Amino acid sequence: MKKALTLPVAFVAMIVLAVLSVRAGAVSVSFRDIGAIMLQQDSPFQFIVVHVRLPRVVVAILAGSGLAVGGVILQSLVRNPLASPDVIGMTKGAGFAAAAVIYLFPGSPGYVLPAAAFAGALGAFGLLALLSRRLSLSPAALALVGIAVGAVFQAGIQYLIVRHPADLNMALLWLSGSLWGRGWADALSLLPWLAVLLPVAWLNSAKLDIFRLGDETGASLGIGVVRQRFWLMLLAVALAGISVSAVGAIGFVGLLAPHIARSLVGGRHRLLMPLALLIGADLMLLGDGIGRIVAIPREVPVGIMAAVIGAPYFVYLLRKERRLGR
Asked: What DSSP designation does 84 have?
């Protein structure tokens, strides 16, 4: 019964956080004005709500969902609780490729940015997979090598900053991960991709349950282990890359959301995945909301707030895995 309540509770939390996110900021909007705007009544805050804060909320929900589900898939395939798009360097790879498009090809069509982010995430994971196979890494060591891979791509972003100092503000937003200035165009660029990828991920819940049991079990049940792992890994890479293309290299959402969801409902992916999706959206909204009110009239990027929340938890996981001898 408690497990059945987690999804509606997480959904209600997302709605509450979304409303509070629309309300909070340098200019506070009352609940009465928000209600009036939703009912298409006149309000002096209509532009702020409709064209500034609502698209920002939608982008936060979509990107947080994509990063969280990508984390679920990676942790299940690698059977490593420390795996997530940001920890193993995928978000940094996607961020580097997207930043390269922004700096080097500023006039590119809108569809080029998500494609570049996907390619960057795929390149980061390919590099990590090559290193892990050659070095026969343990789960904890895999996470540490992933951090090193991410640092390489981070250095690439910093190189772009040095070469293009006129775009420093944009670069800093990419480095920290931010929802500042996100509009309906960003939301619409995310929506069609995630509308396809998230249902596909959920439809593969049973396969992910089997992968957590080991390759031998999967092979004995007639699953093409290598082929299915490849396609599911591409799915995780796509989710991370598309999300990063809209919000920058935000860390720890893909690590925290699956762990919180797993502690509440266990490891069955049919329930774990939608709960992690909602928790990922909640974390993004929470981080963005706190970041906008902690230093008014300035704002702290959501990527920094996510790191403040997630870094201590990551250290805890490392210590836990070390105690277990993994």
From this structure: -
